[in-house]
Every structure is written in structure tokens, then in C-alpha cells.
Amino acid sequence: MINQNAPIGVFDSGVGGLTVVKEIMHQIPNERIVYFGDTARVPYGSKSKETVTKFSRQIVRFLQMQNVKAIVVACNTASAYALDEIEKETDIPMIGVVKPGAKVASEVTGNGKIGIIGTEGTIASGIYSKYIKELNDKAEVIGRSCPLFVPLVEEGLLQDPVTDEIAKRYLAELIDIDIDTLVLGCTHYPLIRETVGRVMGDKVTLVNPAYETARELKELLEEKNLLNEEPAKLGDDKYRFFVSDASEKFKRFANSIIKYGILSAKTINIEEY
Amino acid sequence: MINQNAPIGVFDSGVGGLTVVKEIMHQIPNERIVYFGDTARVPYGSKSKETVTKFSRQIVRFLQMQNVKAIVVACNTASAYALDEIEKETDIPMIGVVKPGAKVASEVTGNGKIGIIGTEGTIASGIYSKYIKELNDKAEVIGRSCPLFVPLVEEGLLQDPVTDEIAKRYLAELIDIDIDTLVLGCTHYPLIRETVGRVMGDKVTLVNPAYETARELKELLEEKNLLNEEPAKLGDDKYRFFVSDASEKFKRFANSIIKYGILSAKTINIEEY
What we know:
Chain A is an alpha/beta fold and 273 residues long.
């Protein structure tokens, strides 16, 4: 029997998943959230399926000990590499960001040409293509990994000629083949949405899986009768943040993404889980 | 009683330490080497002292189990944050890259103005400044962290207008204050030595701690009567490479740095040590 007042667990390799947290806070404001950012082992995007799955499994164990009622894998690489395996290992309902993103992309495309940008891991997995083609078998899906986007975002170069130049190189091929829809397949990328949008031009629709993930989470909780009916009230207890490394960067970044402000982030030893 | 034919242990957060391995292979070609690259948890440069020390301690335990006769901390961040603590915990002679780099810089400077570039961790530690001032109390040491250099190197942009532009921004302040010596305080940076040299101009001497570290290692082994007297012969057994994540990138990168070729890199679970 799952407690409907229990928190939702959300995890990511670091800070990117906070773009998903922000959408959850907005769309289902009554919900409590426990967030874990694996700042000691970030990034996941350049690491193997085995390693990302091992790390994700440890985090799920940690979140289970926080008695969460549902888990959101708010990291594209972990959703791509680990979700299928780890969701079999627990009864807690679990959703990732890839399926919701793939669903929107397959719905909004006109010409059926869909681009996916993400980490090396997400692109190598081919998972967006797999899900999109299940929904729209005529779709043509083209993936492009963009390894410098995360470091550029973390360096704060959100609006910068260097970010423009790198975006032009990464996206050139997608422009050439005339895609009309582009999935921001990494939770950091909404932060450079403007740059990506400018380079792609007005005719291309950008899909941010964070929005759709929060919507699907809400549906899932409704369906399972797990929505929190308590009146919304803000306090230390409502939104709790854990990290594996006491990085000041986490708090700085988190506060730039989430309007409520992150008062504290507790460091835990994730390798023990 | 340490066996003089035992291997030297060398570790880094990932591939950067191979620039040090290359120097060791060159300067003391009879030595066996066991290398560990922490590719599952790379990078260290943006992480805390506590985390970097914990990771380094695990790696030292792993290297001890390989019966190494000496350990080279071939990572500036680990040398800066962890070396003082971990060298107390074992009898195995240990050297890092910071002291050798600081020593050369304090010797070659003419005007006493020395720049240090490195990761956020290395620069925040202030350790280069501390060691340089012990050797030359008139020296003025100015540190600058360059967080994008490692991702740019790993993306292969060794000679590229984007790398030039980022280098100009990072180094502007060091040029303004007229340094005559610049320490490449991260093992990745020798790979963009040309770009850094071009931006700094001919009057600035670039110091690569890798060279000096290998020289000091040789002296240390001589002093302790631990030099390997066996004739040099190359085989799988002489140079062994271990990583924490089975990244293909490791082998690709390693082969671009070391001329002998890395035939294989074995993956181990470093969290168990």
C-alpha cells in the first residue's frame, strides 16, 4: 500500500534534472519531492550502459529508503540506458524522460523528419528512434550527440558567440536534412533553448521532454490514485535535495533554475547503496 | 622489503595522466607500469576535496593490491587535494605532479610572475602558490581555472578557432599582468600546448609538470635503490591499463597519446576498494 502523501523521487546525474523538477513543481504543486543529483560521478553522458545502470540502481535504492511513491528518471542517459532494467527490480512506478519526449515529437512533426540531440550515451542507445518509430512508423529520426553543450551550460555561456558557433557545427547536418522537429534530449539543453532555436530557425519545433514528463507523471499518479491531496505548503520538508558531492555549484545552479530557492542540499555517500 | 622489479602505479581521473605515463616510458624505459584511469567518475576537477580524497584512497588500495613499488598521482586535482592525506596512509613512496611543476616554475621565472592554469579544484586549493612561495618567496603566483579546456580536448578541438577564443578569454588576465612563466596545471593541457603558447606569446615559458614528474620519479627510485635493472622488453605484462568504465574513448585517446599502443584496458569496480 503506497502512501499518497509520500514524496516523488527524482534523480539525475547532476543539476540538469532540476529542469524536470521545475515542471513538476509547476504542474502538480501539491507534491513533495526528493531530488538526488549524482554530483560526485557526473556526467553520465559519456559513460557506458553498465556503469550508468549500476549508478542508477544505487540511486533507486536510496530513493526507496526515502519511501517515495514514484520515481522520475530525470536524465536522458539514465532513461536511455538503465530504465528498462531498473523498473523491473521494484514495484514503485517509474517514468523516464525519453518516452514522453518521443511521444510529443511523433505527434508534432509534419514532415516526419525528427532530430534528436543528446549526450553520446543517449544518441548511441538509439532509444528515441525506437520509441518514435513505434508511434509513427514513417518517421525518420536523426540523432546527433553534442558533448560540449553540457560543459558550455555549466560554464554559464548560455548566450555566447562560442555556444552559437558550436551549436552551428552540431546542428548543421540536422538543418541540411530539413527536420521540422528537434528533441532537446538532455535535461541541460532547455537552458540553451534560445541558442538552439536561433540556429535551427522558426520552422523547427523544439520539444522539451521535461514538460511532457511532468504531465505524464500527473496522469500516472491520477490513474493509481496517488495524487497528494494535502494543501500545498512550502517548507524545508516539501522539497528535499540530496547530492553525492558537496558541490557549491549544485546550489548555485539549482537556485538559477528553480524559483523557490534551494536552501540546502545534503551530501550522502551513494556508493553505499 | 619492496621488490625493485615491481611496477610503478600511476593514476588519474581518466586519460590525462597518460601524458605523464608517456614521459615515464621515455625517461625510465625499463620500468613496468600499472595505470588506473577513473573513467566512471571522471572528471575530478569540479568536485570537492572530500570526494577527490575518497576516490584517490580507493585507487591507492587497488594499486597496492597490484604490488606497486611507488605511486605517481598523475592528476593535478588529486595531487592538490588528496596527496598530503593519502601519502600518510601507506609506506609506498608517492609523488604527485604539483611539487615538480612548482619547482621548475620557481626556477625558470625571471620576473617572478608565474601563472597557473588548472581545474577549479586545483586552482581553489592554492597549492601551486604555496609550493612556489616556499621555494621563491618573492614570486607572485596567479591562478586561473579553465573548466572548458578538458571538454575541448576530449572533443578533439586541439587546433580550433573555438579553443583559441576560449583560451584568449581564460588567459587575458595572465597576459595583462605580464607573467613570464605559465604552468600547465592539468594533465590534459599539454595536448593544447600549441594553442596556449600562441595565445601567451613567445616571451612566456610554458611548464609541463609531466616531464619534471618523471625526472623526479627516476631520482626517487635511484635514491631508494628501486630502479628496475631488468632489460627493457615490451609485452602485455609490462604496461597494464585499468579503468573503472569500459569506455572506448579511453583506448582511442590512449592510443593517440602513447606510441606503444594500448592493446587492452581492463575494467574494474573501483567502488569495491
